[in-house]
Write a structure and sequence with these properties.
21% helix; 15 strands; Structural Genomics Hypothetical 15.5 Kd Protein In mrcA-pckA Intergenic Region, Chain A; Alpha-Beta Plaits; 27% strand; alpha+beta; 3 domains
């Protein structure tokens, strides 16, 4: 197996990032500095920055489809169009054909789900499912109670008023927001309505799936419990 694919399959990073790490001399195989294009076999010891590769969270049982959680870095575009530079499909580099479930702005980072099962994408995104999405947001002005109340009540964007949501202060310039909608650039436009500019936006939860300790660029398989939490009526995956 190619070394960059071996590293990517561990969930540490994408193949492109793996090549960057190899080129920077940060990867060794059996104690010898690796080269781009190297291959590895069973039993080879691969270290990145002196640390072993993370163990993939394996799926339980046999699944027909792939369901993964990715910590999307800034700059990756949530599109399946391979002609788009930095598209999410090429970034993940999965062997299966996968689709993002919903989207996350190119300028935003954090949790996004992907799957090879196109049939369930609309099921998960349906408004009546009221799937919560939680974000941590940094803005350019001090967060006030008035701002938080206004965001929570609903804001006119895209010719409609956003649904009520939950907000709370995290720091002087930071707040948490929990939505059940997924309108295009929703949080940025909501904040702009009150004269605030979003400087950083990180999604940390979708339903019962949490970003937790997944590092930027890493991905893992969803667990059975996470899948059932997303679509509790389904029995087969």
């Amino acid at each position: 197996m190619r070394l960059n694919k071996h590293i990517s399959d561990s969930g540490l990073c994408s193949r492109r990032e793996a090549d960057r790490l190899i080129g920077a001399g940060k990867v060794s195989v059996n104690g010898i500095r690796a080269r781009i294009g190297s291959e590895v076999g069973d039993g080879d010891k691969v270290l990145v920055d002196g640390q072993p590769l993370p163990k993939r969270v394996a799926s339980q049982g046999k699944r027909q489809h792939v369901y993964i959680a990715l910590n999307k870095p800034i700059g990756v575009t949530c599109t399946t169009e391979t002609g788009v530079k930095g598209n999410i499909v090429d970034f993940v580099g999965h062997d299966r054909r996968i689709f993002p479930i919903g989207r996350l702005d190119k300028e935003s980072e954090g949790l996004i789900l992907l799957t090879s099962n196109g049939d369930i994408v609309n099921e998960i995104l349906r408004a009546e499912n009221k799937l919560e999405k939680e974000y941590l947001v940094a803005v350019n002005h001090a967060v006030t109670d008035e701002f938080l109340r206004g965001m929570a009540r609903g804001v006119p964007i895209h010719g409609q008023t956003t649904l009520p949501c939950r907000t709370s202060r995290l720091a002087r310039f930071g707040f948490r927001i929990i939505l059940v909608q997924g309108l295009n650039r929703q949080i940025r436009l909501m904040a702009a309505h009150f004269g605030f500019r979003v400087k950083q936006l990180v999604r940390v939860r979708i339903g019962n799936v949490k970003l937790a300790h997944l590092k930027a660029g890493q991905w893992r398989n969803l667990t059975e419990a996470e899948l059932q939490g997303l679509l509790p009526h389904r029995t087969e995956w």
